[in-house]
Write a structure and sequence with these properties.
- This protein is an alpha/beta fold.
- Helices cover 34% and strands 25% of the residues.
- The strands form 4 sheets. Strands 3-6-2-1-9-11-12-10 form an 8-stranded mixed beta sheet, with helices on both faces.
- The chain is globular and about 80 Å long.
- It binds adenosine-5'-diphosphate (ADP), aspartic acid and magnesium ion.
- Magnesium ion (MG) binds next to loops.
- Adenosine-5'-diphosphate binds next to loops.
- InterPro entries: AceGlu_kinase-like_sf, ACT-like_dom_sf, ACT_Aspartokinase, ACT_dom, AKii-LysC-BS, Asp/Glu/Uridylate_kinase, Asp_kin_monofn, Asp_kinase.
- It comes from Candidatus Planktophila sulfonica.
Length: 423
């Protein structure tokens, strides 16, 4: 007997049929003698639909109210799932994030979990019930207001609860059979990975592979908690996210884990920045003070004649308008000429722990881009990742070219997409 935390994503509980299928799966785990805690997302595209509604009544909905609205999505699915399980003759109790003890800071829309105090969950499972917890939400320690953890945050609820309850495993059920060498929705030849390391998955998630929320991977690594990503639509074994690949992994697996592509970022270029000490600090401090996260940064060499340079950076499109406003406020003080905003870019990343010890990966990657006729606008690297910014229209072709160049294409037709709209 063990304690298993299972998380079901929105496409797994998109309708009544989905809820019943998931309920049966949960009951099977319980029948096998386990204590079961379930984290559930909002049904289908509910969260997107609620955001659209909010935007129809106001162009800038207040963060507190938007969080209150969005958390309703998970309350609907948790109660329906508990009802479906009760109908199968098993006791299930649903809990909001706040009732489950998910304590966060007060940053609406992207709150961080500070503590998890799952007393009521422990009581429920010790009494033989199945506990169903609303994902993606918590309560702020300072303000007592309801918060959300950022898009895709139910994964993080699941891992945080699993860590707090010292669960044996956290199972993330989704609409594909595991973690693949590329997004199966875009690259049909993607191959399913048996294992991926925390380190590789952190890079993939940060690079836009939304199969796992970035912070859930950080959490799992900190607590050495194994994550099993698998499909709620098939019985197949999925992908294990672990500390190290087991001995005897294949060569490809050792060098490159996969590629990730991301259309959610925009590029801001600050033109004609005086090349003086402290200027970059002033610019990025102003952005940080407004909780704006920056991804890639490139600064050109300044032109000798003018002493001026350009600084480009990328950030989530959703933060683009606010970043531009913040920069305009400091334009006079910093003395730059203008701001350019471009939201038709795409980011392609190649990730693999084997990059450390295999020279030539960069050369192969750039040769593949050249052969595919893809122009590269920005580059950034870590020890185990290369990311490039390209035109948005070139992105999927570039991803396919890199995937093929590193021998990742699979001939098994395993990249099955069971549900979801990819939204
Ligand atoms: P859920 O609703 O279950 O949380 P998500 O839509 O958040 O599901 O995440 C699953 C989706 O992630 C898949 O449908 C797939 O399109 C996408 N994805 C992106 N990169 C990968 C990858 N490397 N492996 C698997 N899925 C990926
Ligand atoms: N429902 C939330 C979202 O769509 C959280 C999640 O699904 O993980 O982002
Ligand atoms: Mg998700």
């Amino acid at each position: 007997m063990g304690l298993i935390v299972q998380k079901f994503g929105g496409s797994s509980v998109a309708d009544a049929e989905g809820l019943k299928r998931v309920a049966a799966r949960i009951v099977a785990t319980k029948k096998a003698g386990n204590q079961v805690v379930v984290v559930v997302s909002a049904m289908g595209d509910t969260t997107d639909e609620l955001i659209d509604l909010a935007n129809q009544v106001s162009p800038i909905p207040p963060g507190r109210e938007l969080d209150m609205l969005l958390t309703a999505g998970e309350r609907i699915s948790m109660a329906l799932l508990a009802i479906a399980i009760n109908n199968l003759g098993f006791e299930a109790l649903s809990f909001t994030g706040s009732q489950a003890g998910v304590i966060t800071d007060s940053t609406h829309g992207k709150a961080r979990i500070i503590d998890v105090t799952p007393g009521r969950i422990r009581e429920a499972i010790d009494a033989g019930s199945i506990a169903i917890v609303a994902g993606f939400q918590g309560i702020s320690q300072d303000t007592n207001d309801i918060t959300t953890l950022g898009r895709g945050g139910s994964d993080t609820t699941a891992v945080a609860l699993a860590a707090a309850l010292e669960a044996d495993v956290c199972e993330i059920y989704t609409d594909v059979d595991g973690i693949f060498s590329a997004d199966p929705r875009a690259i049909p030849a993607a191959r399913k990975l048996k294992t991926v390391t925390y380190e590789e998955m952190l890079e993939l998630a940060a690079a836009g592979a939304k199969v796992l929320h970035l912070r859930c991977v950080e959490y799992a690594r900190r607590f050495k908690l194994p994550i099993h990503v698998r499909s709620s639509f098939s019985p197949l074994e999925g992908t294990w996210v672990v500390e190290n690949h087991p001995e005897g992994g294949t060569m490809e697996q050792a060098i490159i884990a996969g590629v990730a592509h991301d259309k959610s970022e925009a590029k801001v270029t600050i033109v004609g920045v005086p090349d003086r000490t402290g200027v970059a600090a002033r610019i990025f401090q102003a952005l940080a003070d407004n909780d704006l996260n920056i991804d890639m940064i490139v600064q050109n060499v300044s032109a000798a004649a003018t002493g001026l340079t350009d600084i480009s950076f990328t950030l989530p499109k959703a933060d683009g308008a606010e970043a531009t406003t913040v920069l305009k406020k400091i334009q006079g003080e910093v003395g730059f000429a203008s701001i350019q905003y471009d939201d038709t870019i795409g980011k392609l990343s190649l990730v693999g722990a084997g990059m450390r010890s295999h020279p030539g990966v960069t050369a192969t990657f750039f040769a593949a881009m050249a052969e595919a006729g893809v122009n590269i606008e920005m580059i950034s690297t870590s020890e185990i990742r290369i990311s490039v910014i390209v035109r948005e229209g070139d992105l999927e072709r570039a991803a396919q070219a890199a995937h093929t160049a590193f021998g990742l294409d699979s001939d098994q037709n395993e990249a099955v997409v069971y549900g979801g709209t990819g939204r």
